[in-house]
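A protein record in our archive is deliberately plain, so that people and models can read it alike. The tokens are whole numbers drawn from a learned vocabulary of local backbone shapes. For reference, a complete record is included directly beneath this paragraph.
>
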Amino acid sequence: MVISRRPNLNVDLFVDGTKLKQRDSFRYLGTIITQDGKSHTEIKARIAQAKTNFQKMKPLLTNNKITITTRKRALQCYIEPILMYGCEAWTITKEIQKKIEAAEMWFFSRMLRVPWTARKTNEEVLKETESTRSLMNRIRRRQAKFVGHIMRREGLENLVTTGRMEGKKSRGRQREKMLDGMTSWMGTKRVTDALSESWDRESWKDMIANAKGQGT
């Protein structure tokens, strides 16, 4: 597979005279990797898997005889980990963030058995479930912890995260990187400012704890 901004870039690779089949995507350690290098396909697949497993646990998660607190704990224990698997490496655009937040509200609405015909606002659903939107914040927190870990390790992951490629930038608006979204969430102006703080474990923990967060 060739990862590039240029679509349908064909490359011929041979091993012992046998041509390898080129793929536009493949699954590695449970994560879908695509030729455009984006996280969109993987995140959408994770949301779909989480919803499927929610339906399997529907008798428990929508049971009004069980307190909403207990059901929310079951949601966080069995459903959300499926959605958040591998989120440390996600690049989350505004479009994808809306899908993640919509999935979170979908879970809460189903737990209350709110029909699609009922014109109930998200705020009303959150109030009834005694919840706030926290899924995006938890994803960003996991990303920040992961970045702090790999920066202090000074291994291959550090090199991949902080390294620069030779050559000129492509024309037009540059793609948003995972570090861009994370530093914005933490309230720092530049990626370099955030990464410089990551070497101090305690300072990094304080930055994560005091992050302004995202969502409403």
Observations:
- The first strand starts at residue 14 and ends at 15.
